[in-house]
Structure prediction request, 101 residues.
Amino acid sequence: MAKKTAGKNAGDNPDDPLATLSYEEKESRLDEILVRLDNSETPMDELASEAREAAALIMAMHATLKATRQEITTVFEELERHKETIADERSDEADDGSLHP
Prediction:
């Protein structure tokens, strides 16, 4: 089974079967549904449930993307603050005449 691409996502619910799927697994299932719909392979009595599942997959994938984007933004903001701290420390050391790296 594929590894989840992001941690806990908005909308993750242990009772929700989609919560256990990775982003890639959700994408694969959505592709399967779309191919069946495109090829008119979905029986009429399953059409509504597959459309509902496709919509749920899209919303879950969107939540994963949104959470991942926020997490990445946070990581880069922390990295930028750390970079500024290092620059400040080097500046202070240079002012002291220290030769520390």
